[in-house]
Amino acid sequence: MPGKDGQIILDLSGVLAIDNAGTATLVGLWREARDRGAVLQLAGVSGAVLQKLNEFRVSSEVVAAPKPAGVWESLGGRSWHGLQGVGEFVVLAADVTVGAVLSVLRPRSLRWAALAQQMSLMGSQALGIVGLITFLIGLTLAFQSAYQLRQFGAAIYVATLTAISMVREMGPLITAILVAGRSGSSITSEVATMKVGEEIDALHVMGIPFVDYVAVPKLLAMVLAVPLLTILADGFGIMGGWVVGTVYLDIAPLPYLQKTIDSLVAKDLATGLIKSAVFAWGIALIGLYYGMGVRGGAQEVGRATTASVVSSIFFIIVADSLFSILFYVVLG
Amino acid sequence: MNHSASPAPSARPAGAEPVLKVRGLVVRYGDRTVLDGIDMTVARGEIRVILGGSGSGKSTALKGILGLTEIARGEVELLGQPMVGLAEAQRLQLMQRVGVLFQNGALFGSLTVGENVALPLREHRKLPQGAVRELVRSKLAMVGLAHAEFLYPAELSGGMRKRAGLARALALDPEVLFCDEPSAGLDPLTSLNLDNLILQLRDRLQMTVVVVTHELASIEGIADSLLMVGGGKVIAEGPVAEVRQRGIAEVDEFFARKARVSTSTDCSAAELFGLVASASSGGA
Questions:
Q1: CB contact, 8 Å: A14 with chain B?
Q2: Contact with chain B for residue A197, Cβ under 8 A
Q3: Using the beta-carbon criterion (under 8 Å), do A54 and B277 form an inter-chain contact?
Q4: pLDDT digits (tens, 9 = 90+) for A207-249
Q5: Domain map of chain B by residue range?
Q6: Confidence class of residue B2 from pLDDT cuts 50, 70 and 90?
Q7: Separation of first and last alpha carbons in chain A
Q8: B254: closest CA among B212, B210, B217?
């Protein structure tokens, strides 16, 4: 019932019992009334209800919820964080790259056991999946081009086309993308878990440099393993094309291989391997960067891992386009 | 070798260089000042407890001292060397004289317990394999984990992980041992054993021990001196008994375990509505 001077009187005489939720509702109404310049009062409060009201604590400390940032503010914030992130990445990349070069120059300082273990994880254990996928890619490439080339009676050029596209482009690219998904993600999640579990802090206070102990073996293993995997990928891709050529196009096996060898020049293989080494360098550093960037708890590890893989693949595609321009436009 | 259980720090040789000296330590996380000018001096062979409730800044103080978090202002001198601006090569050397037990052990998940303890030995000492193995077994036996040498951290309980972390922290026979919440999550018996171990280490090796904790009950028996931190500032520093006698409200609360659930300005819903218990009690 309305009272005078903005007084609101709530008659509770019919209420025999109340729980915390009910009490909270009353307190919420009181606050709302106060904010609108009115006073909420209760009438006919029974003993049981009064007891509950006595037990319910109302905090005097009301903290305002943080205001969500506006469009411009959040845009500015994200750009600023992005810039900071680029700075941090450059520092980390320089540290780890210099560390890797130094440890190659002084092989006794290198953690050989860690390097061998990482090579096995990133290289040998990826052989199966890289071989299978690139074989299928080679197969598909050959099928698609055979369909076109046969119309001109130029079926033998399937060998040329498959070989060149595998060695220059598909081999390095597919291998790098697979490695980003397999090993880039595992670098990030491993480093992030170390960060969350205070293991990075433990290394720091044990006087063991993180760069030498964790980062360098991963970077070196990656840069060594990925070009080797790429060579394997090139081979399996060409093999896929060869299967199509001999089975579907009835090209004799040896002439097909001869055509393949004739069509490849050393530059194709070299550019492919240089590219794959650079992709590997990027995948390892991006993986380390996102792992080191984790703040807080375990839920951050998954988010960082996803971000790492997406960034790695983005990096690979962008770097690949730049390399195409460099190798085939600038250097002719 | 036969020291009394808890000699007063004043009994130590006067004029000895302090092991740890902190002056005006300020740590900020963004706009928030977590530590606002902490001073402390820890003498050699002292067992020092840094005490404070959760959010008091005591763990941040430890991180600041060890260089695990950025210091906004202030100086930290550890074993006579300034931690701020120390060249990386010197820092790596200095850290070999320091052992740190992290709250959850911070063991390396990819290494067994034995390999974890061996890691600092392999990285910093040129020892034959056999010697490393014997040292590892000896340290593990010290914390009662000899049987766990070949287990992985994931296979250990929380208390075992902590003890393994202690074995690793002690691997290089450090001059100073820092412990972050050593007894949290331990059963009373294990916690007591840990205390006795720390006491032995101090008495035998003249090791200095700095313990950060929110519960004094376990460590009180062996602590020489106390630094009480609250709201990012030092509330009290000195020998345990002396600090307790000073009658400082925050300290008393800690020792009496009087819980302050809410602030005095809080009220009940009944008071909010201006109802008094006696006023309408008959109205039911």
A1: no
A2: yes
A3: yes
A4: 998 998 999 999 999 999 999 999 999 999 999 999 999 998 8
A5: 17-97+175-185+200-258, 106-173
A6: very low
A7: 89
A8: B217
- The predicted pLDDT at position B181 comes to 85
Q: Which domain holds residue A112?
A: 95-330
Within-domain flag for A179: yes
For residue A204, which residues of chain B lie inside 8 Å, CB to CB?
Answer: 66-68, 95
Q: Which amino acid is at B112?
A: T
Say whether residue B30 is in contact with chain A using an 8 A CB cutoff: no
Between A42, A59, A194, which is nearest B266 by CB? Answer: A59
Residue A88 inside a domain? The answer is no
Judge contact between A194 and A200, C-beta under 8 A. Answer: yes
Instruction: Tell me which residue has tokens 């036969």.
Output: B2
Contact B106 A202 (CB under 8 A): yes
Residues of A with CB below 8 A from B178's CB? Answer: 205
User: Based on the domain organization, do A147 and A294 belong to the same domain?
Assistant: yes
pLDDT level of residue B260 (50, 70, 90 thresholds): low
Q: Are A170 and A107 within one domain?
A: yes
Task: Look at chain A and report how many structural domains it folds into.
Answer: 2
Q: What is the pLDDT of residue A42?
A: 86
Tokens 């691997």 belong to residue: B171
Read off the pLDDT of residues A102-114 as tens digits, 9 standing for 90 and up. 988 988 878 888 8
Tell whether B283 is within 8 A of chain A (Cβ). yes
Whether residues A14 and A109 fall in one domain: no
3-state secondary structure of B128: coil
Name chain B contacts of A112, Cβ cutoff 8 Å: none
A61 touches chain B (CB under 8 A): yes
Burial class (CB in 10 A: 0-12, 13-18, 19+), A175: buried
Quote the minimal CA–CA distance from A84 to chain B in Å: 14
> What distance in Å separates residue B43's CA from the closest CA in chain A?
21
Domain match, A170 and A23 both: no
Side chain identity, residue A34: R
Q: According to CATH, what is the number of the domain B17-97+175-185+200-258? A: 3.40.50.300
Supply the ipTM of this predicted assembly.
0.81
Measured over the CA atoms of residue B122, residue B204, residue B153 and residue B114, the dihedral's sign is positive
Q: In chain A, which among 24-43 make CB contacts under 8 A with chain B?
A: 26-27, 30, 40-42
* A166 and A49 part of one domain: no
Q: Which residue of A has its CA nearest to B122?
A: A208
- How many contacts (CB atoms, under 8 Å) link A and B? 119
**A283 domain-assigned:** yes
- Say what angle helices A299-325 and A266-292 make with each other, to 10 degrees: 150
Q: What residues pair up with B98 in beta bridges, in sequence order?
A: B176
- pLDDT tens, position by position, B92-149: 899 999 999 998 889 998 899 999 999 999 888 888 989 999 999 999 998 888 899 9
Distance from CA of B5 to the nearest CA of A (A): 29
Q: Is A228 helix (H, G, I), strand (E, B) or coil?
A: helix
How confident is the prediction for chain A on average, in pLDDT?
Answer: 89
Q: Which residues have a Cβ under 8 Å from the Cβ of A16 and sit 6 or more positions away?
A: A46, A48, A49
Q: Which residues of A touch B277 (CB under 8 A)?
A: 50, 54
The CATH number of whichever domain residue A47 belongs to comes to 3.30.750.24
- On chain A, the residues whose CB falls within 8 A of the CB of B275 are 42, 45, 50, 53
Residues in chain A: 332
Q: Are residues A38 and A161 in the same domain?
A: no
Instruction: Determine, yes or no, domain membership for A60.
Output: no
